[in-house]
Write a structure and sequence with these properties.
The complex is a heterodimer of chains A (116) and B (108). Helices cover 0% and strands 53% of the residues of chain A. In chain A, a hairpin with a 7-residue loop joins strand 9 and strand 10. Chain B is mainly beta and 108 residues long. A five-stranded antiparallel sheet of chain B has the order 1-3-8-7-6, with no helix packed on it. In chain B, strands 2-10-9-4-5 form a five-stranded mixed sheet, with no helix packed on it. Chain B is globular, with a radius of gyration of 13 Å. The interface between A and B is medium-sized, with 20 and 19 residues.
């Protein structure tokens, strides 16, 4: 099956710093990738849709200036959490849409961000 | 139905018993419905992609049906095993935010 990697798996950063998370589709090209966030004891919340070569589409309530998304190639999307605060501590997970017609998603392993 | 709803939110099943749960979604402009299985400490994994009304998909002891006219899909687990313990998520194609999921715990 298709493989999506995510790096880093865990990161601890200080308040006010920025953190970049990478999402890569390893064996297929993904024109569309997605970034999710999981709040404690809740399901996955879609943050934004990342389209290769164009601006990301953010869901309502997600600050685009805080969560910068770049999808510069067909296999890489990055999420940068800028000026991180403790409330940004969360589990972030990306997925890449399959290039076949039904469009199922293949998920990365997620990144646990802790802001101190 | 304006959003994706899954019920029940959690299930406790005795090993060997069968169970089922529901995903409800807006029936207008339907394209496809995806079911995912999310085990603790792992990534969500695609189970089924349902596209046609009346579709039934099967993978081992797990199967799913689809009713696009009334906007629901059922997922069935036959003869539950401890390894079936996971959160099962559904999402319609056009709206990729998931329902809250149904967390299944199978007791040995």
């Amino acid at each position: 099956g298709a493989v999506v990697s995510q790096h880093p798996s865990r990161v601890i950063c200080k308040s006010g710093t920025s953190v970049k998370i990478e999402c890569r589709s390893l064996d297929f090209q993904a024109t569309t990738m997605f970034w999710y966030r999981q709040f404690p004891k809740q399901s996955l919340m879609l943050m934004a849709t990342s389209n290769e070569g164009s601006k990301a589409t953010y869901e309502q309530g997600v600050e685009k200036d805080k969560f910068l998304i770049n999808h510069a190639s067909l296999t890489l999307s990055t999420l940068t959490v800028t000026s991180a605060h403790p409330e940004d501590s969360s589990f972030y997970i990306c997925s890449a849409r399959s290039p076949n017609g039904a469009g199922e998603q293949y998920f990365g392993p997620g990144t646990r961000l802790t802001v101190t | 139905i304006l959003n994706v709803e899954q019920s029940p939110q959690s299930l406790h099943v005795q090993e060997g018993d069968s169970t089922n749960f529901t995903c409800s979604f807006p029936s207008s402009n339907f394209y496809a419905l995806h079911w995912y299985r999310w085990e603790t400490a792992k990534s969500p994994e695609a189970l089924f992609v349902m596209t046609l009304n009346g579709d039934e998909k099967k993978k081992g002891r797990i199967s799913a049906t689809l009713n696009t006219k009334e906007g629901y899909s059922y997922l069935y687990i036959k003869g539950s095993q401890p390894e079936d313990s996971a959160t099962y998520l559904c999402a319609p194609y056009y709206k990729l935010s998931f329902g809250a999921g149904t967390t299944v715990t199978v007791r040995a």
